[in-house]
Amino acid sequence: MRRLLPIVAALAAMALFGLVVYSVMGTLKSTKNISHKPTQTQALVALPGTVTLVQGGNIYRLSGLQFTEVKAPPYDWVQVEPAPDGDILAVAYASMFTNVYLLTSQGQVVRELLQESSTYYFQNHWAYYPKVSPNGATLFYATDWLDPDDAYDVDFQIQAVPFANPSAHPTVWSTPNEFQGGDVEPIPLANGGIIYAKYAVATTGATYAQLVYASSPYANPVYLTTAAQDCAEPALSPTGTEIAMVCSDNSLQTTTLEVASFNGTSIGTPVVVSAGPLPASPTWSTNGKGLLYLNTLLTDKASPFQLWWIPNALAAKPSPPQQVTADLDFTATSPPIWSS
Amino acid sequence: MAALLVFGFGVSGVSGVVAYFLPAITAALNITHQPTNNSGKHPQATPTVPPTTTPNGPLNILLLGSDNDTKFEPDHVLTQTMIVVRVNPTAHTVVMFSIPRDLWVPIGDDGGYAKIDAAYADGGAAEAISTVENNFGITINYWVWIGLGGLVQLVNDLHGVNIVAQMPIMDDEYPSDLTGNNPYAQARVAILPGPQRLGGVVALEYVRSRHGDILSDIARSQKQQQLLLDIKAAAKDEGLADVPTIAGSLGNSMKTDMSISEVASLLPLAKTLSDGSVQQVIMTGSPYFSNYFVDGQDALLPDWPAINSLVAQYFPT
Q1: pTM value?
Q2: Under CATH, what is the fold of the domain A232-340?
Q3: A42 and B CB contact within 8 Å
Q4: Are B143 and B64 in contact (CB under 8 A)?
Q5: B21-314 — its CATH code?
Q6: Which of B170, B191, B275, B282 to mutate to test the interface with A (most CBs of A within 10 A)?
């Protein structure tokens, strides 16, 4: 019996070794694109002010190097936008529709602004990109328009309602190109007009977006960019004199972040401030100099989206983009809110 | 005694490695080396040109993607995706050539006309291959079939893919047939435009939705090729230890007639390909085809001289 003991021990050790090898193999899996919760990490750079943004259906705030979670109701939050008095406009996603809420900076619901659910299938709606006009009177957003004669034809269009009474009948601001995605990303201007992105499909089959200025509802669109530029996701500087935008090379494999001057009805020659791989959703700093946006790692366009910034985007020679976060996975279709 | 111990630990260690890769080995055996048999009613349908490859010479792979839900009998599914991928290992280039699924062509050997997406449903991979070869004059060396569920799993196993959504994707009648008991269920889908990271389900919605797009199936072909490139980019970050997970989830949703060694020989090329070395070819309507209403359905009538000219350009003999 005593002679068997070493043999049994050796066999047990061998079996254990096999299990260890099996387990070690599992640890060799790529973790490159596995992200953390923001509250489990710190930012790499302390930005001035406070940034609010979305990851995995939750809303987070970055102040200094620290993230905190905004304790909003447990909906699937997919977009945030700034609201008057430091509040937050937030879009909650459900399987058939989205609702838009006004939240305090701490996440409490002030009121539900847009209720888009319905028991009738085709009366459910999407509402995205909510924006309050500079005078605080009007809520603009993009919502789906369904052709009553063709249930296949669904496109985004820009609508507006009184911010104080959002259940009022909406004013339609744009006429989308049918079967071509539609009109999104409204930016209300101080002069009462709006800028938005209009999608279209060329006869060659190429899909593109153009930035458009509209002075009033149903006004003829004034195109600010060309089809070849393929630009969308406009962000207007606090002074209203600069536009940041995301442009595609039409291969749909890379984007660029570009800045151009804006005089109210036309834009100047754009300058590329971030050449790739996938810059998205720019936001200006409150002093109008810095630009915050989401992008992948510069060396890995398949990596999750991180926060990046350019401190002096309007300088004659802007400094290279700086990475603000690592190992996170922000929702790239939600521009960060950057408040002082 | 020491040698015995070393041998014992060696066997144990190798067993650990084999156990770890067992799902990959099993899946690889299930997925690869599938017979190009004819599962349909056209037993004579076989590729007219025997598949031949020269060492390091270009080879053409027919990539087939299908619904694999309960609307269809198992393995008698329409192919929503038909892409001929030409791989040139020497030049390190790839051509992706999408075939519109509604193209009205003779399929099988009885000369009957149908939409080309019916070829696989009618006669399996053999008939899909012979239909492509007979109509386009492209010799197919290998085929790969993937079901929609497999695509979802693949993207999820890669922890998502980054895409630039070419426009808002809106679809109030998107087929919601991958889950639940109703293969005819519908869902409302909205995907915002621009750069973003998508999980498997939304990535599938992106490439599958066509109702709200003026280009319909052409746009779908564009998006399918786009997603393939994005998957390639995401797969670059995966290592050998990730293979069992990915292979395990593809086990029931992927098939190919390539051998394991043939698949393995292509992987290094896939990892080193740059976007610039991939040419995307999509026929966007005129002059390649025109709308055609036949047998009570909308189809696309091919203009073969125009198509043949395009094929000659990208698939030189």
Answers
A1: 0.88
A2: Neuraminidase (2.120.10)
A3: no
A4: yes
A5: 3.40.630.190
A6: B170
